[in-house]
Structures are given as C-alpha cells and as structure tokens.
C-alpha cells in the first residue's frame, strides 16, 4: 500500500508542527522512589534465596501494582530494553551508539499465589524471550524492514497532519497513536567514579524518555548500593495520584519481600 501510493515528504515546518502538537497532546510527569543501602542488601539476599534477580522482582512488583489500575482485567504488557553489544559482529564496547533492542512480556499477576511464586513465573517469561533470537530482534527487524519515509510518516499520522492510510495503519499497529503499554529500563549498577574534581555525585535518578507507545516507563539505576526508580508518565492517561499509589505499592511489596 505504501510503495504503491504517493509517498509524502516532510520538511522542517512539518516537524515543528508535529513537535508542538505532540506536546499539546502529552503531559509528561516525573516522580521517583528510593531503596536505601540497607533495604537494597536485604532485597538482594531475599531475591538470591528465591533464585530470581532484582530486575525480576522489580518487574513483578510493577505488574502487581499496575494491575489494580488495569480495569480491563487483561495481562499487563511490559517492554524491557536489552543490551545487544555482545551480539553484534564487531566490538561495540568503545562505540557511541544505541546498541539496544527490547523484548515484551505479557503477564497477569495471580493474587492466589504469593509474590515469589509470581516472580518465578515472570522470570520464566523473561528468560523465554531472552533465549529467543526472534523475540530479541523482532523490534529492530520490524523497523529495518520499513521504508524510512514510512517511519517518519507514521509519527506524522499520529501527531501531525498526515492522512496517508498506510502510515495511519503502521502507527496503530505499533500503538504510537494510542499508548497502551508500559516499560522498565534497568541500567543496573553504575560503576564509575562519583568524585569529579571538587564535586561529588550523591544521587542518580534515571528518568527514561516516555516512548510514544507507552504511557508509563520506569528507569532503574543503582549507585553506591542505593537504587532509585524513576517514573516517566503521561498525566493525560494516568493521574499523578495513581503513580504515587503505584510507587507506594511497589515499595510495600519490596518491604514484604525483605520481611519474608
């Protein structure tokens, strides 16, 4: 459909109009929560005892907290970015670039099971996707197979004045026009010198960019054994009060994990 039709072109004026419209339709909110050194150590030990990672626990706690806000009773869809530096055919360690793709899991928290039982099932979902080359490269291959002009056009169809049917269909398939998913990006332990001259980095909070297809994205980073969870979300889709409730529920679940 795209190759057969008249392919639209976009200039700087159209990009500026789309930028303005996007920020009229979207209201980005930010928040964060902290897990201190003592709690982090206890959480690490609890996760180790149940043979799951801290990231598995974060994803599970997020799904549980979000599910109370998910009124349609469906599985929660969570995107998880992954590093592919070791999978490319060259050494990317010293290269500047976005060497990442993403996997997606869908899981419905089972309140008849305890947290750890749910976390083990979430771990299996994540592990299954990580062991699948097709799942890991699906997103990148999708974009690689698309005409670059169509990639531009689908954003203009969602937030600009483009009326092309193929562009609108692509935007709908990738949920760009109606954000419906969530995501968690975990940077892990940050290993760098926090002392820069006379300045010292005391805290680090990672607020990931809210992708058009997601209405809430979590950014996780651990510095000096203190974990910060940053929340980037669209206040026109999910209220700030709900995000604060989600934060509280997640922290309560972590405290529950520590106590058990």
Describe this structure in words.
This protein is α/β, with parallel strands linked by helices and 260 residues long. Helices cover 42% and strands 22% of the residues. The protein contains eight helices and eight strands. The chain has helices at 12-25, 37-49, 54-67, 115-130, 133-144, 148-159, 165-173, 240-259; strands at 28-35, 76-83, 100-107, 181-189, 195-196, 199-200, 214-223, 226-234. Strands 1-8-7-4-2-3 form a six-stranded mixed β-sheet. It has a two-stranded antiparallel sheet with strand order 5-6. The protein is globular, with a radius of gyration of 20 Å. The termini are far apart. The relative contact order is 0.20. The mean pLDDT is 89.
Identify the notable features of this structure and list them briefly.
alpha/beta
Fraction in beta strands: 15-25%
Average pLDDT figure? 89
The total strand number stands at: 8
Number of helical segments with 4 or more residues: 8
With strands numbered from the N-terminus, the spatial order across the biggest sheet is 1-8-7-4-2-3
Give the % helix.
Answer: 40-55%
**Uncertain stretches:** none
Give the secondary structure arrangement, pairings included.
Layout: H1 12-25, E1 28-35, H2 37-49, H3 54-67, E2 76-83, E3 100-107, H4 115-130, H5 133-144, H6 148-159, H7 165-173, E4 181-189, E5 195-196, E6 199-200, E7 214-223, E8 226-234, H8 240-259
Parallel strand pairs: 2-4, 4-7
Antiparallel strand pairs: 1-8, 2-3, 5-6, 7-8
Helix pairs in contact: 2-8, 3-4, 3-8, 6-7
